[in-house]
C-alpha cells in the first residue's frame, strides 16, 4: 500500500519527468525508473 508521502513523491517525480501525474505506479513510471537506474540516475 502506498501512503500519502510516497504518492506525493511519485507525483513530483512524474511531473519532473514529463509523465502523466497520477501519484500511482504506472508502467511508464517503472520504465523511466529502470532507464534512470541503468544510466546511473536514481
From TrEMBL:
InterPro entries: Peptidoglycan-bd-like, PGBD-like_sf, PGBDSf. It comes from Hyphomonas polymorpha PS728. It comes from the Bacteria. Residues 3-33 form the Peptidoglycan binding-like domain. This is Putative localization factor protein PodJ. Coiled coil: none annotated.
Amino acid at each position: 500500500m502506498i501512503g500519502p508521502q510516497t504518492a506525493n513523491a511519485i507525483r513530483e517525480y512524474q511531473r519532473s519527468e514529463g509523465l502523466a501525474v497520477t501519484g500511482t505506479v504506472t508502467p511508464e513510471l517503472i520504465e523511466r525508473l529502470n532507464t534512470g537506474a541503468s544510466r546511473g540516475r536514481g
